[in-house]
Design a protein that fits this description.
Elements (H helix, E strand, L loop, with lengths): L1 H22 L21 H13 L22 H9 L2 E6 L5 E5 L13 H7 L11 H4 L3 H10 L15 E2 L7 E2 L20 H16 L3 H29 L5
Antiparallel strand pairs: 1-2, 3-4
Helix pairs in contact: 2-7, 6-7
Length: 253
């Protein structure tokens, strides 16, 4: 009897941390019906442009996209003149002049997106020690990336009863551990879309995730088109091979 009681106490002690850990596990974010999902999926151009607007007006204040060039914006539907105008809004370090003094110049389509901070130390200093991640590949860098980032943007809420949020952090039900330093980045009517779309939190979340998905995987549409062509070619080749086989072996019983 005593051995059984001791075993029960040991199991209870071991189970305690496991239950506590389970309570802090983030639930799986809800799945969204993305236009780019599936073998025939494509990026919604209007959504891409709205998503870029969200990045430019909101996210770029803290997050860089160092792997994306301004010229890449042609792929989301911007004209050559629009791309030049967007690039020219950025001030880029242009080396030094004849006297060795640093000079700046307007951005060019061949430039990378300008980062909001000069280096990681400056980024940490401006964000209470937290380093905002670069968003160029954020969708690829997270499991179930599009749904995860969408859930994160919509997952801010008051903490459950009995949970204390540390100073300088925020509670998010879809973030592992639930506490993160980034305040809620989006809210209803935060921007005014140029195409007149209602800027709800859900709409902005879907648009910016679509843009970040494109940035992480800009060749997706071309790859899918090539894959479809390859499958059709293999189907045709299979049919021709079967026809030839039947012809060659038709007299063999």
């Amino acid at each position: 009897m005593m051995r059984a009681l001791s075993l029960a106490l040991v199991l209870a002690a071991l189970a305690g941390p496991a239950f506590a850990q389970h309570e802090h596990e983030a639930p799986t974010p809800p799945k969204v019906n993305w236009s780019f999902d599936g073998p025939f999926g494509t990026f919604d151009r209007p959504s891409l442009q709205r998503g870029y607007q969200i990045y430019k007006e909101v996210c770029s204040n803290c997050h860089s996209m160092k792997l994306v060039y301004y010229r890449d914006l042609r792929a989301i539907g911007l004209s050559e003149e629009q791309v030049k105008a967007v690039a020219a809004e950025a001030t880029i370090s242009g080396g030094t002049d004849d006297s060795g003094e640093p000079v700046d110049r307007p951005g060019l389509p061949s430039d990378h997106f300008k980062s909001p901070f000069a280096n990681d130390k400056a980024a940490r200093a401006a964000n209470g020690g937290a380093l905002p991640p670069d968003l160029s590949l954020i969708i690829k860098a997270r499991a179930d990336g599009a749904n995860y980032v969408h859930g994160l943007l919509n997952g801010y809420e008051d903490p459950p009863e009995g949970v204390t949020v540390p100073d300088g952090q925020y509670y998010n039900k879809y973030f592992p551990g639930h506490f993160l330093a980034m305040p809620p980045p989006l809210r209803d009517d935060q921007v005014e879309y140029t195409d007149g779309t209602k800027a709800t939190l859900e709409q902005m979340s879907q648009d910016v995730v679509t843009f970040l998905s494109w940035a992480s995987n800009p060749e997706m549409e071309a790859r899918k088109r090539m894959g479809i062509k390859a499958v059709l070619f293999l189907c045709l080749l299979t049919g021709l091979t079967y026809t030839v086989k039947k012809k060659i072996w038709k007299d063999v019983h």
